[in-house]
Design a protein that fits this description.
Blueprint (H helix, E strand, L loop, with lengths): L9 H12 L1 H11 L9 H8 L9 H11 L2 H19 L2 H35 L6 H4 L23 H23 L4 H9 L8 H12 L13 H19 L2 H8 L1 H21 L8 H28 L7 H14 L1 H11 L6 H23 L3 H7 L7 H15 L13
Helix pairs in contact: 1-5, 1-14, 1-15, 2-4, 2-16, 2-17, 5-8, 5-11, 5-14, 6-8, 6-16, 8-11, 10-11, 10-14, 12-14, 13-14, 15-17, 16-17
């Protein structure tokens, strides 16, 4: 059984990496489909938005990809973060926990907004024609008001870094609950409830809670991450965060998730297909239209099922360091913070090139990943950047030799003179 209290759960690191790796393809898809808020859009999408229309653009497969990922991938990131919160609080007291959360979340939020999101805001202003000129000329205008929509005069925005703000607020709001769980002992109600969830198929029961939250809040607050008028995202993501904390405290939950992985996958895919079918078979109106309420409830069922499926299959298949694990950990935070700016630049520069949507989408994603990969390699040799992003130090020659010798001892293959294994 996994025990988060005593060993590293490698599969959660892998899942975190895969989620942040998918951010560039997802955000690029939004640019070409118009199915969400981004900084730079393809010209037909941008023109439809400026005309006040809801755009329906891009290849059908790209639209399906967008809807599918939007249904679960940030939910998974909050659940993994909840497990991390359980680790953190176990090692330190409440005050130190809040300090650690502020250091790891609020400082990157502030610096990332000032240094990264400002670039994205400049590209948005160029794309929508509200500004012409270089970035340094634009920078003072970044602070001229909060950007609420394409028609608002403001430029200030926290962009994709909203996740850091939400995660910090969740950590503070849930702290009294977490402290009660930590101090009440195994006979307390919450650990007992968590233990009951690990029996049989009970692990699927919280899907109903997520479905109720989606049906109750999503029709009225469809989703704009501003913390104060985003009740659907707020309540649903908070629920996944708390569930992650429970899983970090009660390791039997993670074993139950693995056992139920096929059932969870079936629930997630069936609910997602039913959600798509609702939009095709019925006229789904805005607000609390009955068909919209039903579609959002299905969205909640799909989110819970798919998240549990990915965690369950990850626990079964990915719970090892494996080759590339160190690089995956190094890349995770830089990918999250930095992927959007080069992506926006590539989409902006490729607009009007005559290339197909799929070609521009692929080039933009490759440019984003390539930029972040190169930045991560360079940052290993720049201590301030390395420390800020949590990147490993470059190994010294002697360290590489000792590591090769240890690997050779395990494999039974003698190293060569440079400390490398002679096996090819």
């Amino acid at each position: 059984m996994d025990d988060p209290r005593s060993e590293r759960l490698y599969y959660l690191d892998w899942l975190r990496f895969l989620v942040v790796l998918s951010l560039a393809p997802f955000h690029a898809a939004l640019s070409f489909t118009g199915m969400g808020a981004v900084f730079v859009y393809d010209t037909p999408v941008r023109d439809a938005i400026l005309a006040g229309h809801v755009p329906e653009a891009g290849p059908a497969a790209l639209r399906l990809f967008t809807v599918f990922f939007d249904n679960w991938f940030m939910h998974l990131l909050f659940l993994v973060s909840g497990v991390g919160a359980a680790y953190s609080l176990r090692k330190r007291g409440a005050r130190a926990f809040v300090g650690e959360r502020a250091n790891r979340l609020l400082i990157p939020l502030l610096l990332g907004t000032l240094l990264v999101v400002s670039v994205q805001s400049w590209l948005r202003a160029l794309s929508f024609g509200t500004f012409s000129g270089g970035f340094l000329s634009f920078y003072p205008h970044f602070f001229n008001g909060i950007h609420g929509s394409v028609t608002s005069p403001g430029n200030y925005d926290w962009g994709h870094l909203w996740f850091l703000a939400y995660l910090f607020v969740f950590s503070v709001l849930a702290l009294p609950l977490f402290l009660r769980m930590e101090g009440a002992g195994p006979a307390s109600r919450l650990p007992s409830a968590a233990s009951r969830l690990s029996k049989g198929a009970s692990i699927l029961a919280p899907a109903l809670w997520i479905a109720v939250l989606e049906a109750l809040f999503r029709p009225g607050w469809p989703g704009y991450q501003n913390l104060v008028a985003d009740w659907a995202n707020f309540t649903v993501y908070l629920s996944f965060f708390v569930f992650g904390y429970l899983a970090g405290k009660e390791p039997g939950l993670l074993e139950a998730v693995e056992r139920a992985r096929w059932a969870a996958l079936g629930l997630g895919l069936a609910a997602f297909a039913a959600r798509l079918g609702t939009y095709r078979l019925f006229r789904v109106g805005p607000g609390y239209d009955p068909a919209n309420v039903a579609a959002q409830a299905l969205r909640g069922l799909a989110a819970y099922g798919l998240v549990l499926a990915f965690v369950g299959f990850g626990r079964r298949r990915l719970n090892r360091a494996g080759p590339g694990f160190g690089w995956a950990r190094d890349l995770s935070f830089p990918l999250y913070v930095l992927h959007f700016a080069p992506l926006c630049a590539a989409i902006y520069l490729l607009d009007g090139s005559g290339l197909s949507v799929w070609t521009r989408w692929a080039i933009a994603v490759a440019a984003s990943w390539g930029f972040v990969g190169l930045f991560t390699v360079i940052s290993r040799y720049v201590p301030p950047l390395r420390d800020f992003f949590g990147i490993r130090k470059p190994a010294a020659r002697g360290d590489r030799g000792r590591a090769a010798a240890m690997a050779a001892a395990v494999s039974g293959t003698p190293p060569d003179r440079e400390g490398k294994s002679s096996r090819r």
